Amino acid sequence: MSDLPRRAVTRSAKLATLPLSFAGRTALGIGKRIGGKSAEIVAQEIQQRTAEQIFKVLGELKGGAMKLGQALSIFEAALPPEIAGPYRATLTKLQDAAPPLPVSTVHKVLAEQLGDDWREYFVSFDDQPTAAASIGQVHKAVWHDGREVAVKIQYPGAGKALLGDFAQLARLGKLFGALLPGLDIKAVLAELRERIAEELDYFREAEAQHAFAQEFKDDPDFVVPDVIAANEMVLVTEWMDGVPLSRVITEGTKEERDQIGLLFVRFLFCSPARVGMLHADPHPGNFRMLPDGRLGILDFGAVNRLPDGYPAVFGQLTRIFNHGDMDTVVAGLRREGFIRPHIEVDVDALLAFLAPYVEPTAVEEFTFSREWLQAQAASVTDLRPTNVVRQLNLPVSYVLIHRVHAAGVGVLCQLGTTARFRDEVLNWVPGFADPVVD
């Protein structure tokens, strides 16, 4: 990897290796079954090797392909324990890093964006990136006034490459379905494609990050680095140290995981009320545990603008669900467009589908765990056409909220957090504290 692969034929060839290799492994698996291996063991082997190749290729492609890989990586907590280990190692790498751009390309972008005298902006600039994301990578530097800064550089050609990625990835739905049955990959792709234009706009990202930084300045719980400078392809912000959430997941004490998980939820729930926006990319690579115990938040390229805060109906229906009135819940979901008029849903299946989002709000204290999520996932991965997941519609106004909540549950289960989550919903989600009326 010397640069972001931009030529369509190159990118298509890389993506094309995925279904072909999967078919080859499936054929190999059939041979092993004939040789005496059980179907379950063979399936696990196929899933493991498919996962390794999928996320390797997605990481190499960066762009939309890596963005999809990051989205899928959140769901690894729902995988059976016997294959979760290999997934976890591969996916954590994908969340935190990607093959870096060569130094010459980095310097070329800086010269094009900041001028040939770009070095005058910095006392020093580290040519080796500290992090790589889906459409850009981050370098540590010292600004001309002595402040340590993070310099986010967008990959050359990223915008054009993204559209090609999504066109190719849309053809791989069956392959991803084999890894995560029940995940509506088409909806994930549609949502990501809809929002990618915003993530390419560093001016828009700078505006969002500055708003968060101002609101949470000197906050006892949260730290958001402020923006120092921005243009089309370069974003300069204050530098922030800290332990990545991925390391807290694997190495943190129970106390640390409980505290950081609670702050993670508090940040997501309080932001719409305090800032009028929701951070819409809550994967572990975007969060840090700071030495003083606060939660640091990075990457505001994907935000959901909610000037009126969370929709009140969200809290109201959650409260009604907790009271067991599923008829009213179904009626409310119909009014909001989640269930179309001609669709009839299995109420028990709907209850099982909604449980992971609602159960933690029904008790004073709740423990998220991989085992709990696996049990929840098992109830909604029915592949029949009547599966409630396939019957539900996701209104446009709820697409990012759903993405954040689904991803957030996955992160909390990775952390294994025990905390008073219901208090956060009471404090920050309108409608949840409303009395239930007939």
Q: Which band does the percent of strand residues land in? A: 5-15%
Instruction: Please state the overall shape, judged from the principal axes of the Cα atoms.
Output: globular
Instruction: Quote the average pLDDT.
Output: 77
- How big is the Rg? 22 Å
Number of strands: 14
What is the count of helical runs?
Answer: 18
Structural class: alpha+beta
Cα end-to-end separation: 62 Å
Regions with little confidence, pLDDT below 50 for 5+ residues: 1-43, 74-79
Helical amount: 40-55%
Largest sheet: 6 strands, antiparallel
What does this structure look like?
There is one protein chain. With 438 residues, the chain is of the alpha+beta class. Helix content is 54%, strand content 11%. It has 18 helices and 14 strands. It has helices at residues 8-34, 39-61, 63-73, 81-96, 103-114, 158-169, 173-179, 185-200, 202-215, 245-251, 254-274, 312-322, 326-336, 347-358, 370-378, 388-391, 399-415, 421-428, and strands at residues 122-125, 131-132, 136-143, 148-154, 222-223, 227-230, 234-238, 243-244, 277-279, 287-289, 295-297, 303-305, 366-367, 418-419. The strands form four sheets. Strands 1, 2, 3, 4, 6 and 7 form a six-stranded antiparallel beta sheet that branches. A four-stranded mixed beta sheet has the order 5-11-10-8. The chain has a two-stranded antiparallel ribbon with strand order 9-12. A hairpin with a 5-residue loop joins strand 10 and strand 11 (295-297). Helix 2 (39-61) crosses helix 3, helix 6 (158-169) runs antiparallel to helix 8 and helix 11 packs antiparallel against helix 17. The longest helix has 27 residues, at 8-34. It is globular and about 65 Å long. Residues 1-43 and 74-79 have low confidence and may be disordered.
